[in-house]
Amino acid sequence: MIAPTLHTARLTLRMPKLADFEHWAAFFASDRSRFERGPMGRVEGYRAWAADVALWPLRGYGAFGLDDRATGAYVGEVGIYQPEGFPEAELGWFVIPEAEGKGYAAEAARAVIDWVRATFGWGRLVSIIDPANARSLALGLRIGGVIDPTLPGVDPGDVVIRHDLGGRG
User: What are the b/e assignments for 34-73, b being 16+ CB within 10 Å?
Assistant: First the structure.
């Protein structure tokens, strides 16, 4: 499976493409990624990025590349992640520095939640967030999630935000 193309008022959510890796590598090489598996070198970053992209044919979901509809510029990535060791499918996000603070991640996350609800009928998604990542915690709550201390994270101390979808499971 390849990613469907979704549209919001300002964004196109699409299948990741190789050119996206340059943005991904820059983000994950920087200290900004310290809450999200990073920092990591280019080779390790490519392996992690390629594994995330491979979720599409392997599981039928994954990360969407985000493009600004007005300019076509890449602004980040939002999607469903489930690398080995994750307790369940996770709604995650990042945007490039130039796109921060514009609401793109929230807009795209809402579109992904709607797509997951319509496509899979799942009862929930989670976002697993480092407790020091105040911006991601705020975003998870702003899009309607609630902190659920009963759900497992990946690392000790992770904050797990539950996004109720009203589905079957």
Answer: ebbbbebeeeebeebbeebbebbeeeebbbbbbbeeeeee
C-alpha to C-alpha distance for 90 and 110, rounded to whole angstroms: 14
The three-class DSSP label of residue 79 is strand
Q: What's CA 126's distance to the chain center, in Å? A: 11
Q: Which two tokens stand for residue 48?
A: 């992690």
At residue 97, φ and ψ (nearest 5 deg) are -55, -40
The H or E element containing residue 156 is none
Pairing of strands 159-164, 146-147: antiparallel
Q: What angle do CA 55, 71, 144 make, to 5 degrees?
A: 55
Tens of pLDDT, residues 36-88: 776 888 898 898 899 999 999 999 999 999 999 999 999 999 999 998 889 99
Question: What does the pLDDT read at residue 158?
Answer: 95
Name which residue leads in pLDDT, 69 or 167.
69
